[in-house]
Write a structure and sequence with these properties.
Rossmann fold; seven-stranded mixed sheet; alpha/beta; globular; 7 strands
Length: 282
């Protein structure tokens, strides 16, 4: 039976690079005592939003991401759930040949709002069946991740999709730059920034989440936004990689260091032993 009560019933729908499931408790320990409106300008898999919602802490909020396909997926789940569920019944094709046919189809309609329902279904399909659940586009904004060869994939948890849609009812969804999204943030609101992380070295530089990437100039622009919000007495939290540049950039604020494993890596031996920082202004 579908649980229509909402609170306490939502799990992430997506596996997402940079997801916060591992440090959710570390983040949760550091949230402000009270807050009004919640902002998450780098939504990704929305695991922190979900955690706050499940603890009955989200009344109204806004999420955003520059990944237009991700935001289309969330909008369809929020506004077009029945059409989404009807469309998904057409495909249950995890084999290699069908994967690449579907990938070609998807790349023909990517970004086209005439096919928003189909795009959303295929987006979830690739999240479950692509190698490591990775989202990556090339310079032409075409999805190019190979088949993952997974067995026993649970594509659609209908109860969870339904409850996820309920959660989004009071959440505004944007496909906008982080600076634009938080412009209206006020005193006692709460903003959580989870940007693409500053790379630890040149070989770890991965910018494929969107075609434009996120370089150190963007990190500095984000810091200015963080500081501007702090000056307005907005509660601000940020997570990023543990490295000299980030420590120096945010040295006037509270910096906590946490241990983390990163699961989206082609080499399982490299999924351990890393650190991240959690920065707050309160």
């Amino acid at each position: 039976m579908i649980n229509i009560n909402g609170y306490g019933s939502v799990k992430p729908l997506l596996k997402w690079a940079g997801g916060k499931r591992q440090i959710i408790n570390e983040l949760y320990k550091r949230i402000p005592e009270k807050f009004n409106y919640y902002y998450e300008p780098f939504a990704g898999g929305a695991s922190f939003l979900i955690h706050l919602y499940n603890n009955n802490l989200i009344k109204y909020g806004a999420i955003s991401d520059l990944n237009g396909e991700l935001i289309n997926f969330y909008n369809v789940i929020k506004y077009n759930l029945n059409e989404f569920l009807e469309e998904e019944k057409k495909d249950n094709l995890p084999n290699n040949i069908e994967y690449y046919n579907l990938r070609d189809e998807y790349n023909d309609i990517i970004g086209d709002n005439n096919y928003k329902i189909r795009r959303a279904v295929l987006f979830l399909y690739f999240n479950k069946h692509a190698y490591n659940g990775l989202w990556r586009v090339n310079s032409n904004n075409k999805f190019n991740v190979p088949f993952g060869k997974y067995k026993n994939v649970n594509m659609f948890d209908y109860n969870n999709i339904y409850n996820f849609s309920i959660m989004l009812k009071n959440i505004n969804i944007f496909n906008s730059d982080f600076e634009t999204v938080v412009k209206e943030a006020k005193e006692n609101d709460f903003v959580y920034f989870d940007p693409p992380y500053q790379p630890l070295n040149k070989t770890s530089y991965f910018t494929g989440y969107t075609k434009n990437g996120f370089d150190y100039d963007e990190q500095k622009r984000l810091f200015k936004v963080f500081k501007g919000l702090a000056d307005k007495n907005v509660n601000v939290m940020l997570s990023n990689s543990y490295n000299e540049k980030m420590l120096e950039l945010y040295n006037e604020f509270n910096i906590n260091i946490v241990n983390v494993n990163r699961f989206i890596n082609s080499d399982a031996s490299k999924r351990t032993g890393l650190k991240e920082i959690i920065v707050t202004n309160y």
